[in-house]
Each structure stands twice: as structure tokens, then as C-alpha cells.
Amino acid sequence: MREIPEELINRLKEAKKVAVLTGAGISAESGVPTFRGKEGLWSKFRPEELATVDAFLDNPKLVWEWYQYRRDIVDQVEPNPGHYALVEMEKYYPEFALITQNVDGLHRRAGSRNIYELHGNIMLSKCFDCGKTFDGDFDVKSGDIPHCECGGKIRPDVVWFGELLPAAVLNGAFQAAEAADLFLSIGTSALVHPAASLPFIARRNDACVVEVNLDPTPLTAEADFSLPGKAGEILPVLVEGLTG
Ligand code: BJW
Ligand code: ZN
Predict the structure, then answer these.
(1) Do 144 and 232 sit in the same domain of this protein?
(2) Closest CA to 173 of 15, 16, 19
(3) Which of 83, 107, 119, 147 is the catalytic position?
(4) Global pTM exceeds 0.90
(5) Per residue in 106-135, pLDDT tens?
(6) Are residues 134 and 206 in the same domain?
């Protein structure tokens, strides 16, 4: 079993208010592709073709097919030991916030409760014009993209580049980062804002910042503890140290 510094176990045990930020890396071991890197979703598709309002307006069918492809993956995968370790952590702490950039819903399926989905949810849709939300599936493979009864185009209910994050969710995430005495950043390249600023906000407020990632990120040098490796292997060991 992997060695975790004793000082980190002590900090984990002493903490009362914990905030966690997750990114695509935590779902990689479930079989959901990440965005960047060799195996990333965007090594096959250019982001500006797919995850912006302009891309949707230019070619809604292409964007819908990409989301349909990703919905099919999410439908077929299960949470992994990394997701389940965070469920156990939430039981341990009096205050625990799970802030995720992921749209795959795997934290909720694993059993986490206090979740802030910063970038929306891939299984939900909304009207581009009137904002009405829809939770049903649409078959975009065989026909046109779906339309609302107002005539507007229906789009995935996710946050694209240049769009504002849902205000209440973002405020909750900022408050949790400001209040945290321990902040965990897991499986995110820490490049996309405002999510990427959250560990730095926690750091400014004297939180202990811990990173779990396969590769170095802009946060690595600033973190109090950097644990290189797979989230699905490291997080269960942290929980074991905490509760064992
Ligand atoms: C593992 C692992 C394993 C692998 N174990 N680890 C301030 C400064 C600069 C720019 C901006 C700024 N503020 C705003 C911006 C602009 C922009 C931005 O950040 N641009 C930067 C890229 C430069 N931000 C926005 O536009 C945001 N809106 C906004 O701020 O509104 C106000 C505003 C508007 C206009 C101008 C200015 C302000 C919105 C951002 C929305 C991001 N949306 C996406 C798509 C969501 C829908 C969908 O899923 O299709 O969100 S983009 C994509 O990136 C997705 C992700 O949530 C997000 C982050 O990616 P993530 O999760 O980090 O994944 P990867 O693939 O990058 O990294 C995976 C990591 O895991 C890697 O590090 C691996 O090593 C690791 N890993 N396996 C552990 N097993
Ligand atoms: Zn509508």
C-alpha cells in the first residue's frame, strides 16, 4: 500500500471544514475520457468546434452528436474507488463541500451529498432561447436537433467557454473554499477558471492544500502536499489513514 506522510494524516484528522475540487481525472478510472492530454476528448475534437455558444450556433448537430456520444459513455460507466472514498470522507467531517467541474453525475451516483456542479450536468438540457429545462433523452443520431415548444434550439445544460457559471453554485463553492481548513484538488489540470482559482483562495485563507494528480499542474508547486498518482488508488488510502 502507498505511503502517505504522517503529517498529512494528522492534518486530515485535525480538519473540521473540508472542501474538495474534482476534475475529469477522478472519472478517468471509470472510463470517462478526460479533456486534455493524449487520451483527452479534445485530442480528437477541437474545443472551439464543440464547447462554445458560437460552435453550437454554427453547427448544433455536430455539438449534439458529441454530447450524445459522451452521454452514452456516462450511461455505461460506474463510480470508482476514488468517488466512493469521497463519500466516506463526507461522513467524517462536520462541514464538507464537494465542488466538481465534472458533468457526469458520478459523485451523486456514488452517494456524495453536498455537491456543487460548477459546469452543469450532461444528462440535462435547456432551451437556448427561453431557458426551459428538460431531463429527457433526445435522439439526435437519426434526425434534427431537438427544439423547444417556443421554437428555440434545445442545448445541453452545461457551461461552455465564455459563459457564466450558475451564480448560486459558484457562490457556494467560493464560500466553501474561503471557509475550508483543508482543501483537496483532485484530477484537474487546474487551467480552467474560475474553478482553478478555488485552491488559491483556500490557500490565501491558510487552508492546507493537497493535490492528487497523475501529472504536475500550475497548483503543484503551491500545494502543501502533492500526491502524484491515480485518484482511485490514493483517495482510499487517505480515507484509511483518516478512519483506520
Ligand atoms: C488524473 C487521473 C487519475 C488523469 N487520477 N488524476 C481567468 C483567467 C484566464 C481565463 C479566464 C479567467 N476567467 C475566465 C476565463 C475564461 C475561461 C478559461 O478559464 N479559460 C482558460 C482555459 C484560459 N473560463 C470560462 O470561460 C468560464 N466562464 C467564465 O469564467 O465566465 C465569466 C467570463 C466570461 C468571459 C470572459 C471572462 C470571464 C467557463 C468555463 C467552462 C468550462 N467548460 C468545460 C466544458 C463543460 C461542458 C462539457 O463537459 O462539455 O468544462 S471546458 C472543460 O475543462 C470542462 C472541464 O470541467 C474543464 C476542466 O477540465 P479538467 O476537469 O481539469 O480536465 P482536464 O482534462 O483538463 O484534466 C484532467 C486532469 O486529471 C489532468 O491534470 C490529468 O493529469 C489528471 N488525471 N487521470 C488523478 N486517474
Ligand atoms: Zn424555449
Answers:
(1) no
(2) 19
(3) 119
(4) yes
(5) 999 999 999 999 999 999 999 999 999 998
(6) no
